[in-house]
């Protein structure tokens, strides 16, 4: 097909599989680290608040490829033989936790303050107020931006090509070197990325519209 | 575990690192304004243009926003070479950045145009301003000022995204880092320094863009209140 054999398209699909794997690892890791970051960002403790804000500013001020390199070389100086997948997953976790933490902080703060006050009037403890009153409402607000950020995660896994992780971009690069059909190969790769990202973007937008309608 | 840091490469590779910083700054500075202009044009076209133009712009925006920058860069760089147009990696990088930033700022500016209160346009109409005057004097300044924080974030993200351009042999800061580590084998130390340099660049860019806001928005300068 268009000067590229079926086997070679299969090679692209293999790469796409690893892109999805890395995205999921990044999202799960980002959730595990990002949730405490979000909580620390809204905490009243001076230290937690400052430290988490610094963390977010650091990660957001450094390009993802550089984070990948730092992790890749940083883990190996401890004598572990790093495989590119582990390094890429750690880097994606760092990256997405900072952004998700910031997104979720906004969602928690978007719950009206009167909800906290009402909870206090009912003599609920801080933890009870947070778990039973604030969190369920914040979760609903958080769905659209979180799905939207998933698109960013999928797209940004492509930066793992700098440390030689075999993902969709890497497989496309190898194929291009072998066949030199850049238009066909990179269009195919772009279409695969689009097929993953576009439905997510649409979902995010639909969730957002529904949320607005419910609030209106 | 005792790891001894060795930052002596800062001395021996100083000129390479400075060149890398310069190239990163150049890529950013050259791409910001055309990207913003393209984005604004697309936002206007999508809001007020004829049907076919709206569709075309929507396809452009969705295509760019749902595929990674690096694939766009490869497509452009290798694709143009196959077509026989040799424009050089730096130009290819700038074109890719402009196209990419254009799509993102188009969405931001569209939100800005839509957020302008209707009364502003009615007031402008009452003053018998022409369509062109309304756009340049009423809509554009207000829309830009409303979404300026989002634009600043977008431009900083774009600056960070230039780090991928070493993949097409534009030896910006990240590319220089790779060269230095392949000679010194101090990958961790080198990239820590590179990370700090990027942090500094991001902070500086943020300050510059805030300064630019003071110059560009007369209303903000005189009243010092958020819109």
From TrEMBL, chain B:
Residue ranges occupied by any ABC transmembrane type-1 domain in the UniProt entry: 21-209
Taxonomic superkingdom: Bacteria
InterPro entries to which the protein is assigned, alphabetical: AA_ABC_transptr_permease_3TM, ArtM/GltK/GlnP/TcyL/YhdX-like, MetI-like, MetI-like_sf
Localization (cell): Cell inner membrane; Cell membrane
Residues spanning the membrane: 20-48, 93-113, 146-170, 190-217
Protein's membrane topology: Multi-pass membrane protein
Principal location class: membrane
Any one GO CC term of the record: ATP-binding cassette (ABC) transporter complex
Keyword line: Cell membrane, Membrane, Transmembrane, Transmembrane helix, Transport
Any GO BP annotation: amino acid transport
Single Gene Ontology MF annotation: transmembrane transporter activity
UniProt xrefs under CDD domains: TM_PBP2 (cd06261)
Protein family: Belongs to the binding-protein-dependent transport system permease family. HisMQ subfamily.
Record PANTHER family: ABC TRANSPORTER PERMEASE PROTEIN, MEMBRANE COMPONENT OF AMINO ACID ABC TRANSPORTER
Name used for this protein in its record: Polar amino acid transport system permease protein
